[in-house]
Fold:
Amino acid sequence: MSESEQRVVGRVVIVGAGLAGLRTAEELRRAGFEGDVVLVGNEEHLPYDRPPLSKEVMRGEKDDTTLKPREFFDDKGIELRLGAQASGVDVDTKSVLFADGTELSYDQLIIATGLEPRRIASFGDLGGLHVLRSLDDSLALRSELATGKRALIVGAGFIGCELAASFRAAGVEVVLVEPQPTPLASVLGEEIGGLVARLHRDEGVDLRCGVGVEALEAGDTGRVGSVVLSDGTVVDVDLVVVGVGSVPVTGWLAESKIALAEPADGGGVLADEVGRTESDGVWAVGDVAAWRHSTGDHKRVEHWSNAGDQAKALAKALVGAQSGPAAVPYFWSDQYDIKIQALGTPSAQDTVHVVEDDGRKFLAYYSRDGKLTGVVGGGMAAKVMKARAKITAAAPIEEMLGS
Structure:
């Protein structure tokens, strides 16, 4: 660490106490930042891990997914402000505004507010209707599984598929509704989506693709009692979970002069390749951040590992240090006994080459313009991770298929 890097001081305010916010605070200290670090969260909980919410927490195997104990923040000199709802930013006076009328000045502001679930306004607010984002959401939904017999999940993305698996483990009948031809079609393509569909049907999920939801109907108790699908089918249910994706939490920035991506482009806070925005002293990291990539385009990456990679790059840039090479993107999803892993940048628009499939586990290569872009496997952890160097080198797909 150079002398100049060690002398960087001032106050850094990080709004968003999820994984990205926490990792950024950690990386700032690791990079030698000696000023004040204030980590602000709108929940009362200490920063916690979200992936287990649809799995271990939902299945009752875990109640607490706290990432760091309170002593950690004291030891690192990180001030925690929990239960604080940010409502705006004044970039001229460098102040964060809060819903309770208070303000907090900053020298550097890092926006790490993450995502919020999309809701379907026409569904109303019947009892038994849920979304999943927070720990409280997960615990509330878990409590219903004790008496619920039949659930309908709207959306067969990663959250919907993980919830279907957790519900089946609890003995709940599951109807999984997806307007696309297969689960995960928009992310991994229809071919791999078909293999995921097979997995869920083998586990007893009533998977209905190519169909949406027209309306929810209340039962005798005022809770949701049935769901009308777009094909006219009526499904009796005890509870409904909406898992149709998420949107970046940027509403509080609407009057701030901080540049935001258009909703049609995925939304989020526009930033360069290390998280720096065009507003002086303002940065963005994690799911809410639309970083500039090598193509010149801005895009958000909603993966757990990306939060840590971005935090490291941002912290180094803030203290004036050099960042290392970009990590190969990686994400995963646990469904039943199968860990679905994706390495690289697989896309539904890529050519998919399924190279192994035993009826449950599978391995596929993704290629674009004849080059390997990613590897996706179900229950094939070693073979997926072995491809990291090949993805970095953009190996010819013929080389992979011939190996």
Notes: The CA atoms of residues 44 and 83 lie 5 Å apart. The mean pLDDT is 94. The radius of gyration is 22 Å. The chain has eleven helices and 26 strands.
